[in-house]
Design brief:
heterodimer; A: alpha/beta; Rossmann fold; 5-stranded parallel β-sheet; 44% helix; B: mainly alpha; 8 helices
Chain lengths: 180, 259
C-alpha cells in the first residue's frame, strides 16, 4: 500500500547487507526471510530506492554538504540547482543551516549529524522507497526525535511514498507497521 | 599454475581497461570531473614538486659521467642524454615517482574507503565505482604521468645541457643545436606512448588492488604493497616488451631480435 511505513529487524549485518543489495537492485535475488514482502516493495519502487545509512554513508573526500548533493549531481546534473534549493528548504524546515555542513568532512560530524546529512541526501533523490538503516540506534532521545522529524518531513512532502526502517535490534524502533 | 594465474591477471586488467574505455563519456559529469581534477592534483602536483632537484641532478650526472669517464665530446654527451633521458630513464623515473608518491596514496585511500564502507554506500546509492572512481583515476594517472615525464625530461635535459656548458668548452647554444639535430620526432612519439602506457598500467593496478576488484579483498597495507610491487613489475615488463617491439632489443641490447 502506498505511503506505508514498515519496519523490519534483521538478525545480522550480512542479512542487512543482503536486504539492502536486493532492494537497490544490486542483487537480483534474495533468499532470506520476508522475501515476498521485500520483492513487492522493490517492484513497487521501480528501482527508485534511496538509503539513509546508519553512519550517513558519507565520503571523506567530500565535505558533508557536497555529500548531500552527490547522488543528484551524479544522476541528474541538470537538476543540481533545483536540488540545492530543495536542500536549503529541507535544512530550513528541520531547523538546520547548510553552513553547519559546508566545509566539514563527514568524520568531523557527530553521529546524529552524519545521519542527518545522509537522510537529506536520500531525500533529495525523491525515492519511491526510502530505507532507513538503523537510524534510531545508538542515539539519545532528543536525537531520535530529530530523526523522527526528518521522517515526518519526508512523509509530508511525499505522502504516497514508502518508508522501510531496517533495525539490527529490537531497541529504539520507530512505531512503524511490522513487516509481515 | 603460475601461467594460469598470470593469464587470469592479464585478463582482469584487460577487462577493466575495456570497461574504462567504454565509459570515458562519464567524465562530462560534474562530480566525476571533480574526482578527475582531485586525482590529477594528487598524482601530478605531488610528484612534480618532488622531482625538480632529482631531474636536474640526473641530467647533470649523465653529462658529468660521459664527459669525465667516457671522455665524450659535446655531440656524444648530448646523444647519451637523449638516449638515456628521453627514451629510458625519463619515462621510467617519472613513473616510479608517480607510483611511490601518488600510487601508494591512492591505493591506501581506496582501501580505506572500502574498509569504512564508503564504496558499498556508493554502490547502494546507485553510483557506479567504475564511473565515479575508476575512470577518473585511470585517466588522471595516465595524463599526469605524461605531464610528469615531459617535465622530468625538460629539467633533466636542461640541467644536463647547463652543466655541459660549464664542464666543456662549448656554449649552451651549440649544445641546444646538437640536441635538436640529434633528437627526432620518433623519440617524442616513443616517449609519449611509453609514458601514457605506464600511467595507464599504474592506474589499473592501483584501482584493482585498492578497490579490491575481482575478489582481491586485502587490508590497507597489503593493498598498498601489492599495488606498488605490481605496478613496478607491470611497468618494467611493458618497457622491455615495447623496446623489443620497437628496437628489437631487450635489456639494453643484451638480447636481440632474430634478423
Amino acid at each position: 500500500m502506498k505511503g506505508t511505513r514498515l519496519r523490519l529487524t534483521v538478525p545480522t549485518r550480512p542479512a542487512r547487507d543482503a536486504v539492502l543489495a536486493f532492494l537497490t537492485g544490486l542483487e537480483a535475488s534474495y533468499g532470506g526471510p520476508f522475501a515476498g514482502a521485500l520483492t513487492e516493495l522493490r517492484d513497487a519502487a521501480e528501482s527508485n530506492v534511496a538509503i539513509a545509512f546508519e553512519d550517513g554513508g558519507l565520503l571523506q573526500s567530500l565535505d558533508a554538504w557536497q555529500n548531500t548533493l552527490l547522488p543528484v549531481a551524479y544522476h541528474a546534473a541538470h537538476e543540481v540547482d533545483v536540488a540545492v534549493r530543495r536542500a536549503h528548504a529541507i535544512f530550513a524546515a528541520l531547523g538546520r543551516r547548510p553552513a553547519e555542513f559546508i566545509g566539514r568532512p563527514g568524520n568531523s560530524l557527530s553521529l546524529y549529524d552524519r545521519r542527518f546529512a545522509g537522510f537529506v541526501r536520500a531525500m533529495l533523490v525523491e525515492p519511491e522507497l526510502l530505507v532507513l538503516d538503523r537510524l534510531f540506534e545508538e542515539l539519545g532521545r532528543d536525537e531520535r526525535q530529530g530523526i523522527a522529524a526528518c521522517i515526518d518531513l519526508f512523509g509530508s512532502r511525499y505522502p504516497l511514498r514508502r518508508v522501510l526502517y531496517l533495525g539490527l535490534s529490537e531497541v529504539n524502533l520507530p512505531e512503524f507497521e511490522v513487516m509481515q | 599454475m603460475a601461467a594460469g594465474v598470470a593469464y587470469a591477471g592479464v585478463k582482469g586488467y584487460g577487462g577493466l581497461l575495456w570497461d574504462v574505455l567504454g565509459r570515458l563519456s562519464v567524465l562530462k559529469r560534474d562530480p566525476v570531473r571533480d574526482v578527475l581534477v582531485r586525482q590529477m592534483r594528487t598524482a601530478g602536483m605531488a610528484t612534480l614538486s618532488a622531482m625538480v632537484v632529482r631531474a636536474a641532478g640526473i641530467g647533470t650526472l649523465i653529462i658529468a659521467y660521459t664527459t669525465y669517464v667516457l671522455a665524450a665530446d659535446a655531440a656524444f654527451a648530448v646523444r647519451i642524454l637523449i638516449w638515456a633521458v628521453l627514451r629510458e630513464i625519463g619515462p621510467l623515473f617519472a613513473v616510479i615517482l608517480l607510483t611511490v608518491r601518488s600510487g601508494t596514496a591512492m591505493a591506501a585511500e581506496f582501501a580505506l574507503m572500502r574498509e569504512r564502507g564508503e564504496l558499498q554506500a556508493l554502490r547502494l546509492s546507485g553510483i557506479s565505482l567504475l564511473d565515479y572512481i575508476i575512470v577518473p583515476t585511470i585517466v588522471a594517472m595516465t595524463v599526469s604521468n605524461l605531464a610528469i615525464t615531459v617535465y622530468f625530461q625538460f629539467l633533466a635535459v636542461g640541467g644536463g645541457i647547463l652543466v655541459s656548458a660549464l664542464l666543456m668548452d662549448v656554449s649552451i647554444a651549440e649544445l641546444v643545436e646538437h640536441f635538436f639535430a640529434l633528437a627526432s620526432v620518433w623519440d617524442l612519439v616513443y616517449t609519449v606512448i611509453k609514458s601514457l602506457a605506464f600511467g595507464l598500467l599504474v592506474g589499473l593496478v592501483v584501482c584493482i588492488h585498492g578497490l579490491g576488484i575481482g575478489g582481491r579483498q586485502t587490508t590497507m597495507p597489503e593493498a598498498v604493497s601489492r599495488a606498488v610491487m605490481q605496478s613496478i613489475v607491470a611497468v618494467l615488463t611493458f618497457n622491455a616488451v615495447f623496446a623489443y617491439l620497437v628496437f628489437g632489443v631487450l635489456f639494453f641490447g643484451i638480447v636481440k631480435a632474430p634478423a
